Amino acid sequence: MQYELKYGRIDINTQQEFDGKTIRDFLDYFHVGKKNRYLAIQNGQILVNRAKVNNEDQPLKARDIVTILLPKEEIDYTPAETPCTVVYEDDFVYVAHKDPGTIVHDPNDPDCLACQAAAWQNDHGIQSPVRFIHRLDGDTTGLVLFVKIPFFQPWFDAMLEERKIHREYLAITAGRSRVGQHFTYKQKIGRDRHVAGKYRFSETGKDAETKAEIIARKGSYELIRCQLETGRTHQIRVHLSGNRHPIVNDPLYGIPSSQFAHMGLWADRITWENPITHAACEAVDIPNPDYNFFDRKSFR
Fold first, then answer.
1. 280-292 pLDDT tens trace
2. Cα–Cα dist 118/45, whole Å
3. What is the mean pLDDT of residues 199-210?
4. What does the alpha-carbon distance between residue 268 and residue 157 come to, in Å, rounded to a whole number?
5. How far apart are CA 11 and CA 262, in angstroms?
6. What's the pLDDT at 292?
7. What confidence tens digit (pLDDT) does each residue in 114-165 have?
8. Burial track 187-206 (b if 16+ CB lie within 10 A, e otherwise)
9. For the whole model, what pTM was predicted?
10. Among 32, 87, 176, 227, which one is least packed by beta carbons within 10 Å?
11. 299 pLDDT band (50/70/90 cuts)?
């Protein structure tokens, strides 16, 4: 598919993808819920070749132009004094850097990342609700993906659920593994009944999978690249700690270290597909000063 985004509308040339299918199939592809499909059609927000769509059963043929009229919406968070740092932007999303100690969403925190994102949207004329696709722990640094057009949020939510949005982390840990070693951790993770807010390995917990590679080491410290295959709370922290790679300055699972300024976990890279063209997209975060401890040429 191809598209053209204009003020208040997006025209999608369906090419061959929906030949012989219906508007329902088109909206299902974007994971639009039943209620929102009904409202969009009733409000005249869906057009085919400039003509209003009256029901979901309307057929499509090759190269039909489906137009989505985007409603006027408002930013729904109070903008923070300082906007977030954005490392990537396209027509559909932007990717923001989160500092350590910043909460992604907290209604009682006027400087949470969502409020910083509201300030950035306001500065860039993006008058739409602030919609993040995933979160990071408060002490974790790095990338968070936001959707600019709410119509496409369900599609991105589905891609995250289907593991088609790939997130790569770097972790500084204590350990003695060799550079180049690979590990796959699949221990189930559940809540620790004895410590509020903490998680642990549990046979009755949720399935979790983390792939890890030792990419650098110096002294008693390792730098590990981690790939999330699932997205459980504290997943990397629990998996690494439980497998003898405790993260430095992790207050729940790791070890203290004056050698590094913050908790040694950084959401460094994220990849996904454009929802219409299927083009591969990638964002890489700003460099983490703590990683200067290692030889950067060996892992970046």
1. 999 999 988 888 8
2. 26
3. 95
4. 20
5. 46
6. 86
7. 999 999 999 999 999 999 999 999 999 999 999 999 999 999 999 999 999 9
8. bebbbbeeeeeebbbeeebe
9. 0.93
10. 176
11. low
Amino acid identity of 55?
Answer: N
User: CB count, 10 Å around CB of 19?
Assistant: 13
What residues does 204 pair with on adjacent strands? none
Distance CA(139)–CA(234), nearest Å, equals: 11
Write out the two tokens for 162.
């289907």
What is the DSSP annotation of the chain?
-EEEEETTEEEEE-TTTTTT-BHHHHHHHTT--HHHHHHHHHTT-EEETTEEP--TT-B--TT-EEEEEPPP----SPPPSSPPEEEEE-SSEEEEEE-TT--S--TT-TTSHHHHHHHHHHHTT--S--EES----TT-EEEEEEESSGGGHHHHHHHHHTT-SEEEEEEEEE--PPTT-EEEE---EEE-TTSTT-EEE-TTSB---EEEEEEEEETTEEEEEEEESS--TTHHHHHHHHTT-PBBT-TTTSB--TTSSS-SEEEEEEEEE-TTT--EEEEEPPPPGGGGGS-GGGT-
Residue 179's closest CA among 16, 69, 297, 289?
297
